[in-house]
Specification:
Elements (H helix, E strand, L loop, with lengths): L1 E6 L1 H9 L1 H16 L11 E3 L10 H11 L1 E5 L21 E9 L4 E10 L9 H5 L1
Parallel strand pairs: 1-5
Antiparallel strand pairs: 2-3, 3-4, 4-5
């Protein structure tokens, strides 16, 4: 199965605002996948975003949208990685994350990772709900 990348214009703007985000994204996520690694082999944690532990009035809407659209997030190692004790979703964590819509075409056996937002922080309420429901 091959993985292709699609980067939204909004995500490109996120990367322009902080060039270090782009360097970390490429080094720790895009380049390893392009060289043949699976998301399970990456250093950072790759996790379904509907599995976030958030509270608040937007939680149900976000969880539904994230599950329906197969939204994930990956810790890109912004500035540095630190260990995590999550046994369900292994991998190191970082403040910087990328939000990804994952789609798979069963006929072509191709998966597309559509990068919709890159953040220099890991805050569940900064999740790109506006980029999901728009």
């Amino acid at each position: 199965m091959s993985i292709k990348f699609d980067i939204t214009d909004e995500c490109k703007n996120d990367l322009k605002a902080d060039p270090l985000l782009g360097k970390c994204l490429h080094k720790n996520y895009i380049a390893p996948i392009q060289s043949g690694k699976s998301v399970a082999e990456l250093r950072g944690r790759f996790k379904p975003s509907w599995e976030v532990r958030v509270e608040g009035s937007m939680r149900d809407l976000f969880v539904q949208q994230a599950r329906d659209r197969n939204l994930h997030h990956y810790h890109i190692g912004y500035r540095f990685y630190k260990s995590s004790s999550d046994q369900t979703y292994p991998g190191d964590v970082s403040d910087g994350i990328v939000h990804i819509l994952v789609t798979t075409n069963q006929q072509t056996n191709e998966t597309v990772h559509k990068l919709i937002k890159v953040c220099p922080h890991h805050n569940p309420f900064k999740l790109p709900i506006d980029r999901l429901v728009g």
